[in-house]
Design brief:
With 98 residues, the chain is of the alpha+beta class. The protein has two helices and seven strands, in the order αββββαβββ. It has a four-stranded mixed β-sheet with strand order 4-7-6-5, covered by helices on one side. The protein has a three-stranded antiparallel β-sheet with strand order 1-2-3, covered by helices on one side.
């Protein structure tokens, strides 16, 4: 919850339970996202995948690494416009150049 609220500039709608939270944009407008804890591990089962679009991909990757994301070893095609990272729980996501 802490990683994704910081990564997306969201906040919990109400105090989260130990295994569930609804996140909303800090400024109040936009899509709500629900996050729940599951029993599978990210290594056993890809639980979700988000693509985050950025004006400056490298700056956004550095910001996300600074709040707990990790790089993933990935074989990129030529001219890939994305970088694969994982959140602190091991869930992979991409940062895509707009």
């Amino acid at each position: 919850i802490a990683f994704w609220t910081e990564a997306l500039d969201y906040r919990p709608l109400r105090p989260p339970s130990p295994d569930w939270a609804i996140l909303v944009p800090r400024d109040g407008s936009g899509v709500r996202i629900a996050i729940s804890q599951v029993s599978s591990t990210a290594q056993d089962h890809q639980r979700h995948h988000l693509d985050l679009y950025a004006e400056d991909r490298e700056v956004e990757v550095d910001r996300l690494l600074g709040i707990g994301a990790m790089r993933v070893a990935w074989r990129y095609p030529d001219n890939a416009d994305y970088i694969v990272l994982q959140d602190p729980d091991g869930n992979r996501f991409c940062v895509v150049q707009k």
